[in-house]
Design brief:
The chain has 281 residues and is mainly α. 79% of the residues lie in helices and 0% in strands. Helix 3 packs across helix 9. The radius of gyration is 26 Å and the shape is flat.
Length: 281
Amino acid sequence: MTAVSPRTQAVRSFRSARRRAQRVPVRRRNLERTIMIVSPILVLGLWELCAYLRLVDTRFFPAPSSIAVAFWQSLVNGLLVANVAASVSRILIGFVIGAIPAIVLGITMGQMPLVRSFFQPLIDATFPIPKLALLPLLILVFGPNEPSKYAIIAITVFYLVLANTAAGVRNIDKAYLDVARNAGASRWLVFWGVALPGAAPMILTGVRLALNVALLIIVATEFVGATSGVGYMIWNSWQIFQVDLMYVGLVTTAILGILIALVITLLEKILVPWKTYDVNS
């Protein structure tokens, strides 16, 4: 029998320990994913049981099965698709209007202290104003139709994306900017080649936050002066006491929030692959 050297034994022990250490995070992630799937199923099952046993008033808390039936019916007759399309189109148009200038101004503020000194007091003074409080003014200026809804989404998105973009640029290591300038890079090249990629993780964080808040704002906005949209569907079903359809609107809002998170996570993996992701992100 061939004797094993201490060095070989140490290498084998190290490899064995490393394999065990690698298996532990995998098991933990699988357990976390299982819990994430099982927990809502348990809640829905408990809710269904309470509704079946009449432990809750089904006039206000209909069983998940009846909500699912209403969801399917509204999907088949096109009501849900039309309202979701209206809300999503308003979010996307308002987002483009607000996010593009916010990114440009945020990068400029992060690079130029004088520009930041000029705009920062204005931003600090207007940011705390509740955006929904601006809705009467926006309706007065743009009318009750689509432009006022685009405007309130654009304003909401602008501040959130601007703050994250400016913070992202300020957090870039100055050495990268100095190297680019010393190499003779123009201000435009520094903008596109250094500042924008360096701030990309923070920008996408701002985009994620802005889209989620925009979803909340548009649903609340559609309660007033709208004839379509998820918010209109919720409000209208409440007025005519179609509670199951009201819950369909609430569930749809939750699904849209999940889809936004998934899309932004995918974009982050494509645009900033160097960023470390947590399983719950």
